[in-house]
Amino acid sequence: MPKREDIFYTLLKEAAAQMKDASDEYLSIMQGFPDTMAQVPRMKVHETTMDELVSKIHENLYTSFITPIDREDISDLALRMDDVVDLMEVVCARFDLFQIERMRPEAVEMAELTRKAVIELNEVIVRLPKYKKDDKIMHHAKAISRIEDGADRVYQNALRRLFAEEDSGKEVVTWLRLFDRMENCLNAIDKAAGVVRSVVMKSS
Asked: Model-level pTM?
């Protein structure tokens, strides 16, 4: 009979899958905007589901004497993934709040990179139970840093073009806030991967 997987690995995998679903919705909204505005409330559903999973992880941390990796690392990893979904939801909600009428191409690029990084992070979490033996886990974790570096360049180009093309101060300020949050989302993915990179390094 196969050994039952540790509850923390199972819950982290569920959280990673939820994060991936949210990133699919996030990208879909960006690519189809403004026709996809009706999808925006679904991001709140993703965020709520993620919050529930993170709460479940912490409830188990409070009652478990033994954990497969350090408690602080489990908590930090869960909270970083929660940040990713929170930030995606915040960006999408701001489209309605700020009455955005058209999407900027760099926003779509950053959403594409976000989804790409989330897919890599999902691979990292799936491989986490065998992190001491699976060499590919670090490959995927390091790939996220490279994606985040690419997103930094997109972010800088987005601001450069925004300042060059927009005369409206309101438009500039609005998109500055949106791009900042989109960049923070990518940073949160890399920070989550950083937790795993640290776990692997501590065991080597």
From this structure: 0.94
Q: How many residues does the chain have?
A: 204
Alpha helices, H only, the chain: 7-32, 40-63, 71-97, 105-127, 136-165, 169-203
Name the CATH superfamily for 7-203.
Phosphate transport system protein phou homolog 2; domain 2 (1.20.58.220)
Query: What are phi and psi for residue 15, nearest 5 degrees?
Result: -65, -40
Structure token pair of residue 82: 């929660």
Distance CA 38, CA 27 (A): 14
pLDDT in tens, 187-204: 999 999 999 999 999 886
Cβ atoms 86, 23 nearer than 8 A: no
